[in-house]
Design a protein that fits this description.
single chain; about 80 residues; alpha+beta; two-stranded antiparallel sheet; 6 strands
Length: about 80
């Protein structure tokens, strides 16, 4: 299994724009950061890492980042709901 940290962009239509080398990758697991346009993913495929937008990670480093990314998401009790009935 290979692990990567991938930085992407978000356009005006709220679409994710990934680097060309990861567009056709079949990801086994992906975790997105809550605010920053970055994800950590695992795949069987070998991806060319450019060390700027695509960085190869060691498994332990990827696991720690995935946990911190999960923690970056607000908890349900922290969210405010504006529901009109």
């Amino acid at each position: 299994m290979n692990f990567y940290k991938v930085e992407f962009a978000i356009n005006e239509k709220n679409q994710y724009l990934y680097p060309k080398d990861v567009k056709s990758v079949e990801w086994k697991q992906i975790v997105y950061h809550h605010k920053d346009p970055v994800m950590i993913g695992s795949t069987d495929k070998e991806i060319k890492a450019d060390e700027s937008r695509i960085k190869r990670l060691e498994p332990e480093e990827a696991r720690k980042l995935m946990e911190s990314f999960k923690e970056s998401h607000p908890k349900v009790e922290e969210q405010e709901f504006n529901i009109k009935l």
